[in-house]
Structures are given as structure tokens and as C-alpha cells.
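The pair is quoted verbatim underneath.

:::
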Amino acid sequence: MREKISFVLDNGEEIEVLRVRDPRAKRLKLAVDERGTRLTLPWRASLLSGERFLREHRNWLSEQLATFAPSQIATLVPGVTATLPLRDAELPLRWISGRVHRAGLDADGIWMESPARANPRAAARALRDWYQAQARTDVARWLPRYLPDLPRPPARIVFKRMSSQWGALAPDATVTLDLSLILAQPSAFEYVLVHELCHLLRADHSPAFWREVEQRSPAWRQERDYLHAQGRRLKATLLKLLQP
């Protein structure tokens, strides 16, 4: 079962909740992320118990949803948007006329070229490609210092939007990183890279693994705390920018 239901918060705001029945679930679960609100019910749980669970967690739900308030999240509107996030900063954005959609960075901030009849989806794709190029630039700057101590280099590094994780290492040694890391403070981005590279040494999260991480990123706890605190905002911002 997958269906959308309406729920009214204490402030009178009506929101949409995706209600899902999952035979693998062992308990009721409420989650909020950049995609919206999701209520998961175990196979034998009643719909009434789910509604009661929602009411009991109304305050928590309001606090979580405040993280994704539209006023706090930038959108990309060709010719209108005046700033864009990059590396834990909000940079001025200027629009210039051109034949194609593309983006760049100079001393005055970020620029985006756009045809007279701007296509919002094309502009979003151009921004995504530019963010990926910026992320690759950062990784190319950091990676050489870590390679000598690894048993092998990563096969390749790819960027994509990830719903919950920040990074992953595949069996073929491909490192996947969340593209929203380019919006975060660079030290946190580098920590995630180090974390995934250390999985080339140890495929678990044992004390020995964390010693490898700490040797290369002594402040990893602070970076992890930063991502816990800012992660939802970063992921929601990227989603909003890339899906006009």
C-alpha cells in the first residue's frame, strides 16, 4: 500500500503524507526528508494506529518540516535568481545572454549564460553539470595526498544525489559521493572523501577503520556533526535547485 493522505499541523498548515505499508517494518516510523513526509506501517498495524502516531508526533513533525521551509531554500529561476550556494557560502549570481545554458565562476561570483527564451530544465541541467565540475575540481585537489597510503586507487569517482548517505564504495572500487557536498563546508566534503577511501583499507566500521579515518582527518567528529546538523538543508537545497 502506498497512498497520500492529508494531515493538519498545529499551525493550521495542511501537509501531504505518503503512507506506506511495509511487510519488513517492525514498528511505526515517521520520516522527513527533501522529498517530503513518509509514514511507514508494519503489515499488521491498523490505519487508526498510524493516524494516532502522526498526532502524537505533530510537534516533532513541525520542527522537521521547518528545515525545508520554502523561504529557506533557493530556487533556480532564469534571469531572476540572484544568488547560489557553493562551498558553504551564498555567492552572487548574474545572468548573461547567450546561445546555450552554461555556468561559470569568476572574481565577481557565479554567472549563468541563458538564451533569450530560457528553458528552466536546461538551466537546471547546466547548473548540475557545473556543480559536478566544481566537485571534481575539489576532489582532484585533495585525492593525491591520500593515494600513497592506499592499497589501490578508486576505480572512478561519481557524483549523484543520494537520499540519505553521503558516500559509498562499490565492490569494484567506485566511489560515489553526494553532489550536495559541493554546497557544504569543504572540510566536511573532504572528510566524506576520506571516509570512503578508508573503506579501501577496511570494509567495515570497526575501531580499526575509524583509526584510519582519524589519522587522515583528525577533526572527523566535528565534520560528521556538521553534516548531521546541516545535511537535510543541503540535500533539500540541491533538490530544489535541480528540479525547477
Notes: The two ends are 29 Å apart (CA to CA). Residues 72-123 form one domain.
